[in-house]
Amino acid sequence: MPEIPFVDAHVHLWDLSRLHYPWLTPPFADDGPNGSVEAIARTYLLDDYLADAARWNVVGMVHIDAGAEASAALAETEWLQAMRDARGMPSGIVAFAALDDPDVDVLLAAHARHGGVRGIRHIVNWHADPMRTYTPRDMTQDEAWRRGYARLAHHGLSFDLQCYPGQMGSLAALVARHPDVPVIVNHMGMAVASDPAGFDDWRQGMRALAANAHVVTKISGVGFIDRRWTIEQIRPLVLEAIEMFGADRCLFASDVPTDKLFGSFDRHMEAYHAIVADFSDAEKRALFGGNANRVYRLGIAL
């Protein structure tokens, strides 16, 4: 229900006249994980977000790195911090840093100096299918990347993990070795229905991650599973994710404007609310607000 406070755990803003975003730059094609992104390749600012979210009692939101070129990552953080200082949102910031960068400690410290920064995301989705992969190799197997991951705790930063199910087994072992790095699995684990094992790889990988008490998952990005998703299709997957992690370790999120490629803000939110309609009021308040507030240490009075 819209009166339930919503702390949106995954939002992107971008000003295309300010920073360069390679993935939002022509020419556009339909051969990537998102399909063509031409429909969202326009400036999207806080007021645009608030207009999209007008029905949903947004009391806070977390900005996740929006894919600016790597050299602009700190400039993105500075821009968002100034916005937070002036307007109170984004409530939290998850910045980009390449964990395999030789100067990763310098990068992490530079982000962490900003009061709104809570964590880091370094997208690591690797898949053998060139239409699916985000990276040319599975960098999570590189020792340099793993060393960078281990440095997050020193800077008091969480990690937003965006990977594919086939990577989750080895990542779960790494995550278990670093219980002082809170992990937020993006987009419900990004199951790949066309893989030979179907959703079994997803279930196995998500259970391995969920075995670590410091790991949570966002329920968002259902269009990555099927761009033409229906509520009947996603309902069992959402409920299974909640069953695996528990209602206290799942965070609903809009992932706008990216998820607008697959349906409006309202369509996604209506579906999520309908799927958990039979949950208790306390569970719904946790799923839509309390968990994000706790995990990202936002300090919002709910």
From TrEMBL:
Keyword presence, Lipoprotein: no
One Pfam family hit: Amidohydro_2
InterPro entries per the UniProt record, alphabetical: Amidohydro-rel, Metal_Hydrolase, Metallo-dep_Lactonases
Chain ranges of the Amidohydrolase-related domain: 7-298
Alphabetical keyword list: Hydrolase
GO molecular function: hydrolase activity
Highest taxon in the source lineage: Bacteria
Keyword Hydrolase: yes
Family named by the database record: Belongs to the metallo-dependent hydrolases superfamily.
Protein name: Putative TIM-barrel fold metal-dependent hydrolase
Record organism: Hephaestia caeni
